[in-house]
Design brief:
single chain; alpha/beta; Rossmann fold; 7-stranded parallel sheet; 10 helices; 7 strands; about 45% helix
Amino acid sequence: MRLKDRVAIVTECGRGETYGVIWARALAREGAAVVVADADLARAVAVADELSAAGGRAAGTSVDVGTTASCEALAAYTLERFGRIDVLANTHHLWHDLRREDTSDEYLHHVLDYNAVSILRTARAVLPAMRASGGRIVSLSSIGAWYLGGRPAEQLRQTGELPSLAYPASKVLENGLTRLLAGALGVYGITVNAIAPGMIASPATMERLSPPERQAFVERTALRKLLAVSDTAGALLYLASDDGAHVTGQVLVVDGGLVMLG
């Protein structure tokens, strides 16, 4: 097992077969003790109980990635429970509840903060624990940083107004912060990377996009298939384990060849 005796934090589990749940399971299968955190304590505890029932070591707690105090409390809880922090998986990700028509400054700041600035908070929180022995930070990004499709341009033509670009902007910022953090933390043996999924059959995608919309994306990929959330788990384990010890500052695209083809 690649992560035996290591301790990982997953910052959001959500409902259903989400990235947080799938990534937590993958980390546990590789031997890591997993702290599952979520704004909803009951959800976090339920996922942790599932991992424990399957033979893993896990605990659930709450977190608000929008505040430094809560992120620091998450790190303290993890240290108290398991004694160390080796992996931070930033799976919190505003997409399911995204308000695409909201172009207010307040909402822009909220999306940028939740999807991007928050990874600075979580990184600062785990740094004291990782500084001595190194660690792995892996964040959930998106191909939205590069690939918008025709929707924003079409909306501009139809309405004459520039639509909200808060989500893709947040992912551009997140990717940039990933590189900045990698440069700053490398001296401590800490790697910082991100995974950018493409058209993935996540609960949010299945709910927000119609079958024709999903199929249109699939037909633009090289592999011509709709990927599952679990298809990103291999990338996570590579970056979170010693296999990826010398990879840092990278955004690994897992999209079946959508961005590549433009």
